[in-house]
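#struct-pred

JT: dropping the chains for the assembly here, can someone run the whole complex?
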Amino acid sequence: MGAGHAHRLYRHGHSPVHRLPPHCKLVAVLGFVVVVVSTPREALWAFALYAVLLAAVAAVARVPAGFLLKRLAIEVPFVAFALLMPFVVPGEQTELLGLTVSVPGLWGAWNVLAKGTLGVAASVLLASTTELRSLLLGLQRLRLPPLLVQIASFMLRYGDVITDELRRMSIARRSRGFEARGVRHWGVLAKTAGALFIRSYERGERVHLAMVSRGYTGTMPVIDEVTASRAQWAYACALPVLALGVCLLGWTV
Amino acid sequence: MHVPDGFINAPVSAVAGVVAAGAVAVSLRGARRELDGRTAPLAGLVAAFIFAVQMLNFPVAAGTSGHLLGGALAAILVGPYTGVLCIAVVLLMQGILFADGGLTALGVNITVMGVVTVVVAYALFRGLTGVLPRTRRSTTAAAFVAALVSVPAAAVAFTALYAIGGTTDVPLGKVLTAMVGVHVLIGIGEAAITALTVGAVLAVRPDLVHGAQGLAAPLKLRVDGALVDVPAAPAAEPAPAARGRSTRGVWATGLVAALLLAGFVSYYASASPDGLEKVAADKGIDENVKEHGAADSPLADYGVKDISDARLSGGLAGVIGVGVTVAVGSGVFWAVHRRRRPEPVAGALGSD
Amino acid sequence: MSRPARPAPSPEAAPSSGVAPSLEVSGLAYAYPDGHQALFGVDLTVRRGERVALLGPNGAGKTTLVLHLNGILDAGAGTVRVAGLPVEKRNLAEIRRRVGIVFQDPDDQLFMPTVREDVAFGPASAGLRGAALEERVMAALKRVGMEEFATRPPHHLSFGQRRRVAVATVLAMEPEILVLDEPSSNLDPASRRELADILRTLDVTVLMVTHDLPYALELCPRAVILSDGVIAADDHTQELLCDTGLMRKHRLELPFGFDPRSVAVPRP
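RK: done, full complex below.
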């Protein structure tokens, strides 16, 4: 269920992929994932080619394979779901490793696993080669509503601060001998969550005061803007364009 | 429950994306009314809070533990618009920064975990606080029920999306039973934690719980150590009017959303021709597989999308449509009913 | 209330003729929306170029007073004027440019992703762009010795560095009066010293809210005590700190072994 998001993916580096403007990368990854999702599941070789394309990007970005593979673990709940499919989906039955499984179920499991994995891998590559700050600039450049970008920016700025507060509260609890072991301790944990909300909200109010004190009137001044040259766009779009070629082949072959 | 890429087909993902974008756009406008100029920092901090609190582990038993999803909590604490925004931003950041939830499934994730959870929880919460006596205990109870229902509601919404655009025909009855069953369990945990957390906030800062209001006493001056009234000065206004005004918008939006949802779902239900499943079953395996492939693509014809059990999906759609409409409709009734009465909410909460 | 709040001691009041005081607060009262009243009629005048310490026990209303100085809180009763301008809605933009508040927690103040953007926020909100903006940002960072950290995210800095950047964010707006809320809190002695050196070089009016009495004595010739929501005393800092009865009455305590008489301080 996706707990433990504190682990940041960004890896500092100076590869050509790192240097690409963030909005180009966002567009490229989104394009790639859309193409992958639209590929017919029977074109097994197409998915192999997509994996090769991603591996090539990872090599250029100098992201080690182990790092990439470790992050795929995020998929685990859905792997479980996918593994059930061959047993619950009705349809043509077949024998596999001595088990009776359904053919549409197998295809379904393959479809989810292949596309999900490629999607996660592409996102991991994006996140590991792009700084938080530039991702936000990229979203801003892609005309995401400014208010939404501001909210995301505040969330990222204070995510660490609030997670730290949560950690300190947990240390304070444990140093007074409290260890949450079961449902009857939920009251204490919920009080922690309540206190954390109040602290977060009050900090939000104080941040607003600090902003207003320096002349904030509802819109953020644009201090930085990212731009991309035609060459950079071309470079970034190599990935989705190649993938699109593979996808079209998959439909026609 | 972050849906990855490839789970829901491209057309339905795109439609969910449009729905999510619309909901976020409405929420951006609404949040400005809920929080005026403070939207960006406050929503940002609340999003950071949701993000952090999802990491707080609640031990269940025997080494297992759960964590808060936060949709209902956000809705109750900061209101529906800000709630949707916060959850949407958390999901967006999780998708981009942590590869948690597919990028093409972002619309599905925001619609299911953000919009449905928040709207259902808030509608129930307002409905219940409208009928229950205005005490802290009943506010907490309302939070419990709202959170309890919001989680299986999200599961139902997900199942509905899966029925329309799932990439594999898992029998819908089984999916629905499994999803709702599991999520009722999760919902109980979510409900307990949400209610306890809302209770904890109510105990310290009742004014921070959306809808509760502060009291204003007349100002005094300290003159030589004694308190005297300020001479006929223009009294400070607590200005809670904006909050009251915004509720009508909430319900109007909720109703429109429910109707759209109902219409959308029943369109699909009626578009699946009777007996399609029989035709599909009569076909050979190769054709069957080929059809799956086509149904998976953006080029697929929506009308002949293969739904293995048309009757079930039709019935399901009807139930969801009617259910959501009734829930939201009664919510509107209670909200309007409640607005006609004076609202000494904070007083009741404070004296409890 | 051992003595009535008397007007500011003004042996060198020469420039006050003609020039409006940096800050003029009169009869200020305020209650929070939850009903809690924090200020009960504050009168305070700070002349241009003065450095004044605002002392008082916890809960005396110091922060509430500070939030009135740039119109974040609206006076329930009474008035606030900054350089002659009344603090009211139509003057707010100008007031907020002239009153620079450094808040207690630098994490509240540094809300932008990088130091440079944070320092640029104020001037950019006022419409400054391009090279002029860049120049202003670097000048402000140089004054607090943080120019090398311009591209760093604030949460990677030490607390003392963050406090200095917080001062820079306000200096970049070239304020008329600098208001510091507990500037020395949570600083190690070296950071505290460095900040004092920076503050001493600044040529602006300073109002410093603090519990750190030696710091007040070192930096501010004049001090006022805010207690129970009113100004309870107003005098030379050294004389205030030496009045043990007054100090005890308002829960102000000098650190162990510190004797304000033994320190040579600049007299106003």
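JT: nice. Residues 1-16 of chain C have pLDDT under 50 and may be disordered. Residues 21 and 47 of chain C are 4 Å apart (CA to CA).
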